């Protein structure tokens, strides 16, 4: 519970913008601005060529060489092979995120005092690798990451705390890079998450890409020639598209001067209708995901008491219109839809309410399964803990060894729901050496335990010998920093001038 002198800090490390919030002594959360006076820090890093300074935020976003500007790095947090190379130096998504977190830590500390411990938020559908990378980014930035919490959970906590929203709630979070849908019950001081679903690569930056194509099309229609852009011009236009998109949330028609001196500059007129039509396919996908989420809980739209909006992209009028149509009532918005995740994360750090979550992924193992009808055998993914089981939890499945004289029992740990092994991730392996000379058909029990940080432990138990082995599933493949590297890199990042 809360201690009046303690500091409770939450950070929303977003695809487009990041924010830091703390809980004031009156128990309410507030955003702490950066040294530029901004409540939201654009998650953009500019690598300066002259002094090696790393410019972060609006100064990085507005202008500068696009080749030296890194945006939307969060989209690559789960990709161990992704690196950005600038001036011959390679930067991983974890390190770039650490630069953003460093700016927030340093600059916000000047206002609220030294920030050490934090809660950082992630999309509900972030996988193990991306969660681990987020914790590491925090550590590289000199922070102690007390918890990783799902963004919609943090936002729900904020709505429950400050807007007194209660009942069965659906959080619709459409940000810069991801869509998260969470259904939860808010009852007094208790919040029970019932389901979290989402889609990666479905958010505002995808709308910006679509808008670029639309501008190209309109340019051709209105000027009779093709819009030709080189890579830097395209990136600049992409940045402009974000502003155009925001204006289209308020105006029905906007016009932009597009092109280059080389190929000709022309005015292009865009209407809100044409933009909404262009992004219709993605918006329809969000509606399908909503229906699927309700279906998974055997609920209908009428069972939802309130739909709450989170994420900057929910300012698009069509998004609100679709939700109103789907649920028969207007969604609730706190206005600062891009701040409520950070505000809720600070409340989470304070543990103002009890929040129980669900696991965000299914975990299972590969097993040989016989088809009941045809009798044919194939290797399939057998789920042990299904997605959306309340956590913490522990679940077991018993399997039989398939061969005589098996001395090494190997269990591959899968993440994903699909029965087809090609569509799941292998996130670990656990092996147990057993006494020789045993026939096939010995029973082996696999138990997975899921803790509140979405971390998984696996145990394998051989019934006959009584032998068992326990491992925590840690992704430590390519791209994951070793402890010694974390210290070295953290010291290196401390020397970099970040402004
Ligand atoms: N008025 C507006 N109309 C349309 N889009 C908007 C508006 N305001 C902000 N956005 C878009 O919202 C997105 C940023 O929202 P937000 O800050 O909530 O995302 P994020 O937290 O960075 O992303 P994610 O949660 O996916 O990691 C950007 O794509 C931005 O262009
Ligand atoms: Mg967000």
Describe the model:
The chain is α+β, with helices and mostly antiparallel strands and 499 residues long. It folds into 3 domains: 1-163 and 336-353, Nucleotidyltransferase, domain 5, CATH 3.30.420.40; 204-278, Actin, Chain A, domain 4 (Alpha-Beta Complex), CATH 3.90.640; 363-473, Substrate Binding Domain Of DNAk, Chain A, domain 1, CATH 2.60.34.10. Helix content is 29%, strand content 32%. The protein is built from 11 helices and 26 strands. Strands 1, 2, 3, 4, 10 and 11 form a 6-stranded mixed β-sheet that branches. It has a 5-stranded mixed β-sheet with strand order 17-12-13-14-18. Helix 5 packs across helix 6. The radius of gyration is 25 Å and the shape is globular. Bound molecules: adenosine-5'-triphosphate and magnesium ion (MG). The site of adenosine-5'-triphosphate has 24 residues, from helix 5 and helix 6.
